[in-house]
Design a protein that fits this description.
heterodimer, A: 352 residues, alpha/beta, four-stranded parallel sheet, two-stranded antiparallel ribbon, 8 strands, B: 361 residues, 6 strands, 44% helix, globular
Chain lengths: 352, 361
Amino acid sequence: MIPQNHFLDRRQFLSHTASGFGSVALASLLARDGLLGADEHTRESAAGKTPIRQEIDASNPNAPRPAHFKPHARKVLMIFCSGAISQVDTFDYKPELIRHHGKPMPGGEKLVTFQGEQGNLTKSPWDFKPRGQSGKMISELVPKIGALADDMCFLHAMTGKTNTHGPGESFMCTGFTLDGFPSAGAWMTYALGSEAEDLPAYVAIPDVRGTPQSSVNCWGPGFIPAAFQGTDFNAAKPVRNLSIPNNITKSSDNATRAFLERQNLRHLDRVPGGTELAARIASYQLAAKMQMSIPKVTDFSSEPAHILREYCTDESGSRIKDLRAAYGRNCILARRLIEKGVRFVQLFNGAY
Amino acid sequence: MDPNAFVAKLDPAASESARELIDGMASKRARLSAIETGDTAWIANFSQPAKTHRLYRGDPMAEREEVAPDALEVIGSLGMGLDEAEQQRRVKVADWIASEDNPLTARVMANRLWQFVFGTGIVDTPSDFGANGTSPTHPELLDWLAVEFMQNGWSSKELLRLMLTSQTFQQSSQPRAGAAQIDSGALYLWRFPPRRLEAEAIRDSILTVCGTLDLENTGGPGFYLLDVDRENVVHYSPKETTGPAEWRRMVYMFKIRQEQDAVFGAFDYPDGNQVIPKPSRSTTPLQALNLFNSPFIIQQADELAGRIGEGPDGVARAFELLYGRHATEDEIGDSTDFIADQGIEAFCRAMLNTNELLFIF
């Protein structure tokens, strides 16, 4: 699962990071393993070496695990506009494309892709202007973002090997066009655990219109344990099975959980020494805490009116305005989750 | 022993039901034999494969010299020629894999079966017996099991029988003073290491104890736990409610890549596009939420409540059904009081969440 030579050289590292987000966490993970070396609980391999495996306490898989250095960034908010406007219409100024406008792609005359035969090249219909002190060329399509040009970092070095939505989304979120690889957030959670025990360790916020074409693969665990997958909910659709079932009162719910705990403790008395048994008892207490803390994050009543307005959450009346308001609410949710200690939040705009 | 001689010694009622079972067995055998000797199916046309070339750096556009089908050089050679007949290629690979001289196959299979039975294999990297895998905890035992396996005609049933009737499997999971300090994870099996059931077994168990498991529809087309929306691409969303059509063993569930069941997906259920030699077994609060609050559990708890019935007999029945044992006095007292306060459905909801139901120990 992990390359045998875990001291990636610089070139290997760059080739990994160029291929998407997943490898960022992987690199930190590998460094950690290299630093910590053998763990007394890890079985030695047949070759006499210690296998590279993250030591995870299965009874609390999301317990925080320290990084091997003091990190500059402690949280990640990944805003993914799947199927969004093209980079050549927004931030990626392509003078060559303007010169080749209306001509076939050089060297690509016989190229046939998934979408069929290729037409001629087309320049962006929007003009680009230098913005900010840096003079960064930005299209007039995004004037408000353009005004912030000096506050942003643009990385125009990303390439991919697919021009199709699903594999492209997988590539962005996992670093691979094929299914089956862990998402960036899953890697991060696997490597570092969570600092907010009463919230999901890793949250994916899908668009109100649905999931991306690559669906839950964007926050899936791939081949690492399922405990590290993202929990998906948004401002409109709460965490599944979080609330007390219909027709059950809060007091009855508490009494039932208390009875369950008494029965589990009686069992633990008879079969002592099982950490998994104790962990399951604790997981119900943690679940009850989540039932309290998640609604606090999703309740925006403490947000000032001007903030809600800035996020456009008061807009309504047309489909576009409704969508903008819904996305604004998801943005606020993402910010609040980050503030409450969720390490990795993935915010989606667009659905298939 | 002749079954008829045995039946003759039973009392009339037992003898009658035994005869029914024997007759049922005969008709099932007849059906089985009809299936085995029934129509044969057409599978494929066989044709000689195209030439195989070494691909420079794995690039399909960079063909180099022609090569014959073979194993990796470090493992050995199958001695096949460039024009080896199509069928012979597979026969030789199969013979090589299942050869008694091949040290791997029987060991790997014995180790897998050991893992199914005890939770952890003698080698705990079941798909890696190489340099990156871990060493066996009991190498001689693994060798012996592998030889037993081959000598019994590669019968996994016989090997399982051997393991399940062993003292090691049948020992209790009670801790022993001293042993826990040396080997707390019971790697050396001084006790049976308790472990949580996997997702499929939890769901099957719940349906079984609630009396809702459909035992008629074994085999045949599968069932969906997801609603299917066939648009340009197919969309799936978890079913909010399930009924008898979905109350079949989970092995018959249509497994959709990248889509997890709303309740049991959280229980380390491997994705449909993964080959997982050893599922992880984690404990998370999301599992607790799913098993405590999902419509599935509430519905099954209601079914269980109807099945066990009211009163002290109901409590006793619940413990027998869920745990296969009698309730203690303490348990009867606490349960009866709880039911008086919160009702029998709440009692069933709690019981379906208990460790004793969800763990093998």
